[in-house]
Amino acid sequence: MLDERHLLFKVATGTTYIYRKVALASPWEIPAGYAAGSPTLVQKKNGWEVHIPLFLQERRDLRPAAALMQDKDIRILAVDLGLNHHAVMTIQDAEGRVLATEFISGAKDSHLRKQYLERIVRLQKETGIIPEGERFAKDLWDKVKNLVGDIAHQVSRRIVDLAAQHGAKIIVFEHLKNLRPEKGTRSHRMNQKLGYWVKGRIFQYTQYKALHQGIIVCRVNPRDTSRRCPNCGLLSIERYLPGKPHGVTLAQCSNCGLHGVHADWLATRNIGQKFRLRYA
Ligand SMILES: [Zn+2]
């Protein structure tokens, strides 16, 4: 390693090594809190890429959740990951009051993902070959994979930024429910599977981005988070949407009369409540 613009590489040529100096298109920098490992050269279709592994240095200032929850001014961010929305987030105080809400729409990405998958399924039908390992479908699969990675990076970035913005010290997710095979077309099922994959990635990426900012990430059991009424505590939530007989976007309570709230928003309140009860 020479400076921020040049790197020195040891290249194997048969039985000996030569050294090659490489000039970078843009200077590289190590983000605060990370240490860089040894860079490697990777040959790509359109040229060479320099890959520099980054290691997160240990943070000793992180306090465990139980200690943080003793603070009556604690703020948490509760997240519900969905398909129509990538994420619905609420900032909550120690009493469960909602101080801020944000939705990240997923409709556009989900549509694009579905289009790619439909093309993959079509290729499969035409040829009778499972295209996953086939070269002609590989470009499509790569696109889907990149899309999933991009979504996970953007969404996790926004989750951590919102937490930092409101001084939330803990981000709470729910554990992923078991993936149940659903009825529908093949591409619909694949889309479902990919949605599950996206959620896992978002959690993973959020974890390391949050750690870097001194925010901890926890998970609660997903049981009943969309069925329990956060106001009266009963399992009396029904989903509906005016004008749509099978709509599930909104939630109402048949016991206390709560109505007109977004179902995923309601889930974040239950996620926050479950988390608080753990330390009450
Ligand atoms: Zn109720």
Report on the biggest sheet.
5 strands, mixed
In the CATH scheme, what's the topology name of the largest domain?
Answer: Nucleotidyltransferase, domain 5
Distance between the termini: 52 Å
Order of adjacent strands in the largest pleated sheet:
9-8-7-10-11
**Helix and strand sequence:** EEEEEEHEEEHHEHEEEEH
**Helix proportion of residues, in percent?**
25-40%
Low-confidence stretches: none
CATH architecture of the largest domain: 2-Layer Sandwich
Estimate the global geometry from the Cα principal axes.
flat
Any idea of the CATH class of the largest domain? Alpha Beta
Number of domains: 2
Molecular structure report:
The chain starts with 5 loop residues before the first strand and ends with a helix. The mean pLDDT is 87. It has five helices and 14 strands. A hairpin with a 5-residue loop joins strand 8 and strand 9 (98-105). The chain is α+β, with helices and mostly antiparallel strands and 280 residues long. It folds into two domains: 6-56, no CATH class; 65-279, Nucleotidyltransferase, domain 5 (2-Layer Sandwich), CATH 3.30.420. The chain has a five-stranded mixed β-sheet, with helices on both faces. Helix 3 crosses helix 4 (186-212). The longest helix is centred in the middle third of the chain and has 31 residues, at 135-165. The structure holds zinc ion (ZN).
